[in-house]
User: Fold these one by one.
Assistant:
Number 1:
Amino acid sequence: MSLTIRRYRPGDQEAVVKLWEACQLVVPQNDPLKDIRTKIQFQADLLLVAIAEDRLVGTVMAGYEGHRGWINYLAVAPDQRRRGIAKKMMASAENKLRALGCQKINLQVRRTNTTVINFYRTIGFREDDVISFGKRLS
Ligand SMILES: CC(C)(COP(=O)(O)OP(=O)(O)OC[C@H]1O[C@@H](n2cnc3c(N)ncnc32)[C@H](O)[C@@H]1OP(=O)(O)O)[C@@H](O)C(=O)NCCC(=O)NCCS
């Protein structure tokens, strides 16, 4: 399988939203179009897509705020899973964050999402002894 991991382009928008829907990543509190629009104003080169045989099959959104790196919207099309696509996208995202000076990546996953928990453990992430807080500003 030929796989390309590259930066998001405007023409990818529809396929990205469809992928996020297929991966159940679209929830009422997040507007995917707004999330894409906002991201391409901040570190646009950290929104990556995976292309296999001309089809958009994966995404990962990374971010760096000067101290820690963050990962969101990691997704692989259901029929393309267990082929190492997420692992390759994460390697690209990690390289980009490292190049910016990032020393550690943080991320949040739902406790019930055992697939993604297993995935992150496999690629070297470990659970931190922290409570995750959040506050909505809008
Ligand atoms: C999590 C996800 C991105 C993994 O994508 P993927 O391309 O299938 O992952 P990879 O093929 O790179 O997996 C690498 C390794 O992770 C582990 N892994 C991945 N999926 C797993 C699963 N369902 N169960 C157990 N281990 C798993 C395995 O060790 C795997 O290696 P192996 O296939 O050689 O055993 C994908 O399942 C997905 O899109 N899930 C829905 C979206 C989601 O929940 N995203 C996270 C939001 S926080």
Note: The beta strands are 3-7, 47-52, 55-64, 69-76, 105-106.
Number 2:
Amino acid sequence: MKNTPFIAFLLAVVCIGVVNFQQLNAQELNPNKVTYPSYQTESRTNIVYPKVSGFTVLSCDFHTHTMFSDGLVWPTQRVAEAWLGGMDALAITDHIEYRPYRQYTNNDHNTSHEIAIPAAAHTGLILIKGTEITRTQRTIGHFNALFIEDANKIAVDDPKESIKEAKRQGAFVMWNHPGWAVDSTYIKDFQADLFKDGLIDGIEVYNNTEFYPRVLSWAIDKNLAIIATTDVHGYVESGTLQKNGVQRPVTLVLVKENSAKGIREALDSRRTLAFFQNILAAREDVAKMFVDANITAKKVHSDGKTIFINVTNNGSAHYEMQSGNKLYAIPALSSVIVTTPETDKKFINVNFKNIYIYENKTLAHDLYFN
Ligand SMILES: [Zn+2]
Ligand SMILES: [Zn+2]
């Protein structure tokens, strides 16, 4: 028969199909137990930024809690949440003094970090050892000690001695939420004394849901690292923030080396930006460097009267940019067309309305196009 090869082919297909179907049936219809595959359904939301003057931008949260103080999650859950949320580095900073669940955990202040170590290693998340020194907010305040060796030795009565012990261990000390639970933000005697002795290295301009514009000015004037943190106790808020296109608060750190050592060097050199509620807060030179890497401008057309410029945001931050009397929203990884009257100049004067470089001062910048 002329069609023999074709029929043989068809039979083969049918037979293979039957065999496969029977194999499938044998697996699925096991009357004792049907095991379904385990899907890896959780995936990391990547936060992307181009290199900034040769520095890599890392997303870091330097202030979080677990059940080993007054947090509601286990340390491994804190690590998983940070990694899935796009963080590159995390510090678990449980309170030394406030541990309502201590009868269920233990009295060793190093435990939450130790539990988190393998979980962080499995994802490549950089884990920084820290703790929160937690004293009366109105008179003394709360301080995170990062890059410490032994949190137990920091548990001493005198608050200044506690901070000095952290320093002896080589800690980076930051003043937490200076405006939390107080009516007005000001520097008290205790903190003035710490500044005098050079014991404070960084400061939170943003904590959880609070922005302290005045504290940004202190950070600039006193040359402190500018920090934003979640200070999360339960889960990091995602629902409404996500719907509004807002990321979790984060400190962007410009590192030479992608490691804990690299983060420490960058913090000591004050190369940080606080990013929260789609607002950036940074010292002016760092902000300009960041914008120059993230925002690129290219002339696409000129009709003799008007120049049309494509302005592209190459990173995950959001910008609100004023040019002339127009305000442009430039979401993460998107472009807008900016128009300007015909000129010989190769740049436009813009103002980034969501980049604060001082209390009530936003970043004015020349945006070069080619
Ligand atoms: Zn606190
Ligand atoms: Zn805290």
Note: Residues 132, 134, 142, 176-177 surround zinc ion (ligand 1) (CB under 6 Å).
Number 3:
Amino acid sequence: MAEFKNIIGHSKQLSKLSTTIKSGTLPQTFLFIGQKHIGKTTIAKELANILQCNNNCKNCSICTQIEKNGHSDTYIYDNIEESFKIDDIKKLQEKESQTSNSNYKIFIIKNAERMTTPAANSFLKTLEEPNEKTIFILTSSKPEKLLKTIISRTSVIKFQNIKKSEILKTVKKRFPEKTETDINNLFKYTNKTPGEIISLLKDVNKEDKFSKNIERFKIIIKNTTFSKKFKIIEELTKNKTDDEKAEHKADIKTILTLLTTHFREKLKKEPQNVKKNTNTLLKITQTGILLKQNVNTKITLENLMLEI
Ligand SMILES: [Zn+2]
């Protein structure tokens, strides 16, 4: 029987899934719940691999196509920036009703809470009467935003956060050239999930950028002069080209995430400063929301600097 390969942690959940596959009583709709970047989509793709290629061999054309999101009967909806609209569901339903030569027709919908209410209602109809060979795998880090009627039609698997030691061990094994300090640093300043750390390490550019943003973040939280903080804002908002603008936008997003993590930890550790830290967190969140609107980025970020 095919097995899950290269997955960090989640042994209980994987063994439950394996047992279900072996038993031949496969549910038609799974809902994978858990924090972002802990491996839900990776496991969903692995499950698709196991079901489509009986050996999960990682070599055949089926496995390669799934890996590249190019398998004709395995659909992966991972454009997480976009909401999932009724037209998307209609297209999905059309695909679902077509016959196929594969073992299954598998639909992986990442962040299923992106569905608009009309989309979710229409999807519910498909869940009530799916084709025999259809498998849906939904993932969500915000299940409270899903329709209860959808949840009740799924087989829910909850994924827990992975232990630090387990993540560090696996990352070190995959990237032996990295020092413990490098890995520890990444762990400290990220959301502490294997997905995020590995994606940073796989892409050297990303890692360089991340280190640079950590430096900027450290200056921002330091008790230093405003001119130093404003200099960073100047750097992040001076854009000569559209590419530069997009890059800086990503940098700002990273820095806001680092700040959120930092002040959340402070909130936990400093009961005497609850009010102050809550206010700062609120300001960071508001800044994030404002920046998505048509505001002056420089002034908005400078205002935030005055609050930190
Ligand atoms: Zn294969």
Note: The chain has two domains: 11-158, 203-305.
